[in-house]
Amino acid sequence: MSGFQEFLDDFLTSWHNCSLDDMKYIINDTYQAREVSSQSELYDFGYEESIEGWDQAFTAFKNDESSWVLKKLAVTPIRRNEMLAIIFATIESNGKQSDTGNVFFNTFRKGAEGNWKLVRSYIEAGVSIDYVDQLIKE
To answer: Which domains are assigned to the chain?
Structure first.
C-alpha cells in the first residue's frame, strides 16, 4: 500500500497544482464516473468529459487565483490491484474557504506495467464542510 500512498500523494499534488497534463496521464481512457448534484440530479460521464471539466476548472482557478483544498478521508484496498480513495475537495478563494465541496470516491487500478490509473469515480457534490469536519473528528 505504500507504493499506492506515494502515487496518491502525487495525484493530489497534481490536482492541487492544476496540472492538466498529469490528469490526462492519470485518468484511464476507459474512465467512468457518476456525479450527484446537491439537487440529487445524476450526471454520468467518461474520460473526454472529465478532461474537459478539469481543463475548465483549472483555467478558472488560474484566472481568479483560487486554490483547491483537498482532504484524504480514507484509503482502502477493494480488489486485487484496486484501491479506493475517498477525497473531499473544496475551494479557497481570496483567503476564504467555500462552505461546501465534493466528496470523491475514486477507484484506482494498478496496470500490468505497474502504474496506477483512475478508472472510476462516484462524486457527491455540494456536501457541507461541516459534515466532513464532523467525520474527521470521529
So the answer is: 2-137 (3.10.450.50)
